[in-house]
Design a protein that fits this description.
This protein has one domain: Ribonuclease H-like superfamily/Ribonuclease H (Nucleotidyltransferase, domain 5), CATH 3.30.420.10. The radius of gyration is 19 Å and the shape is globular. The chain starts with a helix and ends in a 5-residue tail after the last helix. Strand 1 and strand 2 form a beta hairpin. The longest helix is centred in the last third of the chain and has 24 residues. It has eleven helices and five strands. By secondary structure, it is α/β, with parallel strands linked by helices.
């Protein structure tokens, strides 16, 4: 993985470049979760702070490790994703926020629109975080979005969609890990509330075990009622 796409945009004068990705478009239950990620531009006065430079050796090694090991979350084991997530959270060169849209929203506006909404919410949260990164007198703001797949967000920010960006663009790959780990955590908590379905194992995806439980017990409160395998078995 490399920073080729981010560096290209930095070179064009974009300062706060955000990579986005989501987790949870395919499951039959639970929310869709998106993450928005900024990789700190080393040429920025804000992002080249003394605090970061004072721990440069350790931080640089950590960042290089991430560049080497980060991949699309689907290409990583659960254990590796968790390990990388901890590294991402503690890395001073990475800033992120997550957003989500629940199953009721998905049923109301469809999964594509819900995915966009989750991404927009993540970006809005990141805007607030980015404000805190500025030094006195700076007027910089989020000015470019890189999206995985083929979609456009309803935001007044320059953006570019790249097919399989989570396999090509570092910030999008990081976002894919964050979104996946965050969503898995949500589904593990839901599993304690709805223990019949085994959400802690399949995270809401249509596995044989999930289908068997869905057929036996019918949909739970967190199932997506507009998804065919769910509405096939009636209302809760």
């Amino acid at each position: 993985m490399n920073l080729q796409e981010e560096r290209k945009l930095w070179g064009k004068g974009y300062h706060y470049v955000v990579g986005l990705d989501e987790a949870g478009r395919g499951p039959l239950a639970g929310p869709v979760v998106a993450a928005a990620v900024i990789i700190k531009n080393p040429k920025s006065k804000t992002l080249n702070s003394k605090k970061i430079q004072s721990a440069n050796n350790q931080n640089t090694k950590q960042f290089r490790k991430l560049l080497k090991e980060v991949k699309d979350s689907k290409q990583l084991s659960s254990k590796k994703r968790e390990e990388l997530y901890r590294e991402i959270v503690s890395c001073p060169y990475i800033v992120f926020r997550a957003g989500k849209a629940g199953e009721k929203v998905i049923d109301k506006i469809n999964i594509l629109e819900a995915t966009k909404l989750a991404m927009e919410r993540a970006v809005e949260k990141l805007k607030v975080k980015s404000e805190k990164l500025k030094t006195k007198g700076e007027k910089r703001k989020i000015d470019f979005l890189i999206l995985d797949g083929k979609m456009k967000l309803d935001l007044d920010i320059s953006q570019k969609s790249i097919v399989k960006a989570d396999q090509k663009v570092f910030s999008c790959a990081v976002a894919s890990i964050i979104a996946k780990v965050r969503r898995d955590s949500i589904m593990k908590r839901k599993a304690k509330i709805y223990p019949r379905y085994g959400f802690e194992k399949h995270k809401g995806y249509l596995t044989k075990e999930h289908f068997k439980m869905l057929k036996k017990y019918g949909p739970s409160v967190i199932h997506r009622k507009t998804f065919k395998p769910v509405y096939k078995y009636g209302k809760i």
